[in-house]
Amino acid sequence: VERTSNMKALRFGKHARSLWAASGVVLCYAGWKSGQLKYHCENLQKNTQSGVSKQNLGGVNTSVHTLHLEAKNHINDAIKLLKNRHQDNAKEKLSKALELCETATQKDPKNFELHIQKGQVLLLLNRLAEALQCLEAVTYFESDNAMALFFKGQTLERLNKNEQALGVYDKAIECQPGNPELYVYKIKLLEKMGNMLEPALEVVEGALAQYPQNYEFHYARGRVLSGLARYEESLESLNAARELNQADPGIVDYKVTALYALGREQEAEEALELNDHGVVDDV
Questions:
Q1: FRET pair for 264, CA 20 to 30 Å: which of 156, 176, 220, 275?
Q2: 200, 168 in Cβ contact below 8 A?
Q3: Cβ within 8 Å of residue 118, ≥6 positions away
Q4: Quick count: other Cβ atoms within 10 Å of Cβ 282?
Q5: For residues 121 and 131, what is the distance between their CA atoms, to the nearest angstrom?
Q6: Distance from C-alpha of 69 to C-alpha of 63, rounded to nearest angstrom
Q7: How far apart are CA 191 and CA 196, in angstroms?
Q8: DSSP letter assigned to residue 57
Q9: At a CB cut-off of 8 Å and minimum separation 6, what does 233 contact?
Q10: Which tens digits make up the pLDDT trace of 121-161?
Q11: Each residue of 43-98: pLDDT tens digit?
Q12: How far, rounded to the nearest angstrom, does the alpha carbon of residue 255 sit from its chain's CA centroid?
């Protein structure tokens, strides 16, 4: 049992660090005053009253559209760099993206999609208070904007405001029930909250009914069942996830944990060895 616990802790730590690296660049930020949000909202309100309040990117001028696309390219590049632990290069890309976002929002301040993009960049830069300010300004006027709610939920989660984040994810799912990514983030948050594994399992089961070929939900079911010490069922779900996605090493980590917990040490060792060589058979 001790061996299993130590191995799980070690591997969980490795993946946690990887996820943190992918989630954003660590920067210091002192905070923001509540009046700033009011000012931001008032500016948006003035702009929406003087023009179209829910304008899409297709309706803005070419220069703003170009700025939006350039910022998007920098964001995508930064995310790739973060996943590979190149934080300094990612920070540079995100700083360029932020400059482009600020220019774009100045040119077309009534375009909420541009403000959402800016909020995403601030989130990735770990400037969480500013990100929340930006995203709340959008949801103040568009309470059913699923993308703004999605990034707002992530921001609240990073601020350790988990209950608020959960409510925001629920609202996002209500606005866009056909988006599986929203369910993935809600499930992961419930897992992180520790005492919410039973509700997490309920969400997973519902998501699987809608998306039976989505490996994320089979993987999530395996994780949750493992947390509930239902290891045989966990293995079934993890094997199903592995059939759909051979590239995620985390699936095998949970399989090994379940096998050790069931006393099937030889199979666990074989799974570890095969995983080191990039191949894992069903156990």
A1: 220
A2: no
A3: 98, 101, 102, 105, 134
A4: 12
A5: 8
A6: 10
A7: 6
A8: G
A9: 225
A10: 999 999 999 999 999 999 999 999 999 999 999 999 999 99
A11: 444 444 433 333 444 444 669 999 999 999 999 999 999 988 999 999 999 999 99
A12: 23
Structure-token pair, residue 220: 């999530």
Residue 27: which of 91, 108, 118 has the closest Cα? Answer: 91
| Rounded distance between C-alpha atoms, residue 283 and residue 280, angstroms | 9
Residue 179: which region, alpha, beta or left (left: phi > 0; alpha: psi -120 to 50)?
beta
Please name which of 16, 21, 160 lies closest in space to residue 91, comparing C-alpha atoms.
Answer: 21
Tell the residue number behind the tokens 């001028």, with chain if given: 61
The whole-angstrom separation of Cα 197 and Cα 25 is 29
The CB density around residue 183, as the number of other CB atoms within 10 Å, is 24
As given in the structure block, the two tokens for residue 174 are: 């209500």
* pTM attached to this predicted model: 0.74
